[in-house]
Amino acid sequence: MSTHETDAVGGPVRHSNAVRIAAAAIGVVMALFVVMLFTSKNSSDQPSASPVIGQQAPALGGKALLGEPVDIGSNDRWLLVNFFATWCVPCVKEHPELRQFAENGAKDGSARVVSVAYDDEASAVKKFFEKQGGDWPVLDADRGRTALDWGVAKVPESFLVAPNGVVVHRLQGGVKAREVEALIERYEAQGRANQEGGS
Amino acid sequence: MTGAKTGTKTGTKSGPAKWIAWVAMLVVIVVALFVGTVGQPSPTEAERAQNLAETIRCPSCKSQAVASSETPASKAVRELIWERIEAGDTDEEIRDYVASRFPGQDLLLDPEGSGFSGLVWALPVVFVIAAVAGLVMRFAGYRAQPLTASQEDKSLVDAALRASENGEKP
Amino acid sequence: MNAALGTGGVILGLVASLGAIVTVAMGIRGDRPELMRMSRTYAWMVAGGAAIAFVAMQRALITRDFSLEYVARNGSTTTPALYNFATLWSALEGSILLWAFILGGYCVAVVWKFRDRLSDKLVAWAMLTMFVVTLFFFALMTGPANPFRVLANPPIDGPGPNPLLQNHPLMAFHPPMLYLGYVGFTVPFAFAIAALVTGRLGEGWLIETRRWTLFAWTFLTVGIILGAWWSHEVLGWGGYWAWDPVENASLLPWITGTAFLHSVMVQERRGMLRVWNLSLVCATFALTILGTFLTRSGVLDSVHAFSDSNIGPMLLGFFALIVLTTVGLVAWRGDRLRSPARIDSPASREGAFLLNNIVFAAFAFVVLLGTVFPLIAESLNGEKVTVGVPYFERMTMPIGLVLLFLMAVAPVLPWRKASSETLRTRLLWPGWVGTAVLVISVLVGARGLAPLIAFFLAGFAAGSALRQLVLATRRQGLRGLLGRTNGGMIVHLGVILIAVAFAASNAYQTERETKLCVTAVEGCASSVTVSGHKVEFVGVVDNSTNARKETGAKLLIDGKEFTPAIQQFPNGSQQIGKPTVRNSARNSVLIALLDLPQGEGKDASVRIRVIVQPLIVWLWIGGAVMAFGSLLAAFPGKRRRPTDPTSALPSESPQLQPDPDSEPESGKDAGQDSGQGPQSNDLETAGAST
Prior knowledge:
The structure holds 3 protein chains of 3 kinds.
Chain A: H1 15-39, E1 64-66, E2 78-84, H2 89-108, E3 111-117, H3 122-132, E4 138-140, H4 145-150, E5 157-161, E6 167-172, H5 177-198
Chain B: H1 2-9, H2 20-37, H3 45-55, H4 72-86, H5 91-99, H6 119-144, H7 151-165
Chain C: H1 2-30, H2 33-36, H3 39-62, H4 69-74, H5 81-86, H6 92-113, H7 121-142, H8 174-184, H9 186-198, H10 204-235, H11 245-270, H12 274-296, H13 312-332, H14 349-381, H15 389-409, H16 420-443, H17 449-476, H18 484-507, E1 510-517, E2 527-530, E3 533-542, E4 549-557, E5 560-562, E6 565-568, E7 575-578, E8 580-583, E9 587-593, E10 605-614, H19 617-634
Antiparallel strand pairs in C: 1-10, 2-3, 3-4, 4-5, 4-6, 6-7, 8-9, 9-10
Helix pairs in contact in C: 1-3, 1-7, 3-6, 3-7, 6-7, 6-8, 7-9, 8-10, 9-10, 9-12, 10-11, 10-19, 11-12, 11-14, 12-13, 14-15, 15-17, 16-17, 17-18, 18-19
């Protein structure tokens, strides 16, 4: 970068350097910006943080549309609370996985599923379960209050509740039976480790 | 109002009489603004609820406010706002309560002024101050070197004048 | 057949772009005019390829060729003709196709306009840049955004486009207008790059591209306004601008483009702000690409993101390429970009333009920062932050007020330097217009500090614009409305209308939700009066077609019949509201159904939302005025030989010693197209300074 150039009137040219410095600065900022955009995750698969994790699960206060109402924490099984809607395409896609998970869970008595219908009609929900199968309880969302209490952003969304009634994991988007089972195993192993460490 | 200020600031070399029209205008503007702003009733509960609903994002939508969406989640938030207003909570308490259900400040459409999210408020102000300061410095730099005709310029002008007096094209 | 035709078109475009880049580059390198002139043939081939692909897609849509994945996903047998035509741009792949089609059109227009100068290196470099852009878009269409992917097992029917995109005819016009704007900024960008590369950085490239920029800007303006209109008519919340990422993405290039249209005058008149203008042109183009990335890659949530895809990395890479090229070239040419002139006084036309540019830059900064801040917070701090309407409204309100103030003061400022005498006399009349508007607003019951200041400044600015127009027409008759300065004043009037309508409709909206019954019973009236407008429920009507179910409520608004409805499309079980709006000059009554009408005949009832907003219709009228003004601005004003250097004209000299009677565009200058700078003919002296 030279400053010995002179302009027509004979004054020193400081401008060209200023332009170069500014260009370099903007280049660096823009490069950082691009790197940031490049590394930012797709908004639909954000990490599943939630204030309800680690807390006692909020109540499921909605009317039962199918099956019996569920009292969380009163049984010794893992519970997958699934928020869904019949009009939501990923929900339809995840349904067979939920069925798989519910069947496995019922077989060995380790886990069960409860669904909360989100912004939906009772008749549509009944038709949906007739067509897609599945026989676990389905509740309505208590005019949206349940979804608000659980902090549901958009369906499908599922929460894994430990047998003691504490929410341990939030799954956004469709679930896979195998993944949820792996999660349960992980948390159980963790729990055992904690107990051993504590005793 | 602002227009009148520009006028008065830039000098009064022609005597105060010439500014009478502007002073009259300023008086009219101040009176009109006074009439138009004083004695506003404080917001009703419905207005408070509406204003709050406009700053809280509908949890199941993308960027819509709960005030402008019909999803069950929005209706639930609106009901919650009403309950809390009737229970006597302040606006800030209600916002914090709703926001606490979701990670971070995900549900607040206007980020808080403190902490990292305060940057979104502060950076534009810094930007404007820096830009104006830069401009002022440039102007100051120009002022420091007053425009004077160099000897060379003067001789050029003289030559041109002589040429035109002689009826030639410059 | 359609797939083969379309893919053929895309490949033709891709190959032609590649061929053009190689040929023109060789032509420039070897100084071979015959190679550079071949860009004409290539431009036609690129445009032809895009046109073939466009026609193939339309043909597939019209013949309901569901073997194409795009048609299967977005078309349906029941979609009416107009919306079926518009289905082409209802999803990502089709939008890219529309983009390429328009870009092809611009390429042909450029080679036609510069047909005699294709071997000029400046034009050759510009064409090269344009072909790089076409290459990128055709590459998108052969890769991640292929509109002609074929399905092995075609369905017999598709779901049709998103319901929101097929319940208002404006959807057929808003996207093409917007794209004509976005894509149009490629031309000035190409010339800016060419000017940087060739080093011919005088005012030549600006003058060549001035009307192109104005053209693109006008379409972008119209596109944005139509989008706002669509939102107001369709979404049923009385809103028209939600500061949504997609809306912000269209606003950002508009802001920088507007800034450029102002600061370009400073460069043409005074030769200043060269780096700044080049940066603005390149930023405008880069922002169109960035906006497409932000809204199409799924990094940001948006209510308008009608499709997701994996074209993100390519768009981001292209954005990075544009930015780095521009920054690199500016740094390389920094020494030649030194402006030969300086500003004498902040109280001058160029001083006002500088301030205007700072404000516009701040505007763009606020919009961009607010749009991407959630991403920044997430990646730097791991925090989830949402930035929405309240933020943007609070931040842009002062910006809007300052802009209105500048619109009031700047048009009366002379170039170089203004005296207080000039300001005092010239601003008096506009000042009284503003005061009158303020007083009238207060008298009709408008309250609140911010809206009242907005009304005052709007009146003030309108007074200034009118003053300029009156002076110009007094001198030249109706011809005085032509040219950039005076056309620009008409654009200002449009902006002022929009600003007033924006302030008024935001501040004085009345909203009521209520249940109406055909036969009034206890607790359910048959009519409601909101802000003096009577809404009466008459009955339920069924307007279903085989494309959709539609149940409407027949209502009388002030005696005139309207039928807001709820629609249900076969593919989704979600109900879509179809509100109605009754517009009048004073205010608009918007009615949306909250849910399906209950009961039949005399027992029917319905829950409705009534929103009364003042002055809404002036938003759309303001948009039309802006478009009309830019049309007038595109015409040359009073003619002058382009070789006349304006800054040396004797008529300029009185402005050096300000004279209260001389107008900013006085004498011979009045209303003319602000002339060319001293180096206006550097294009003619081809290759002088490479």
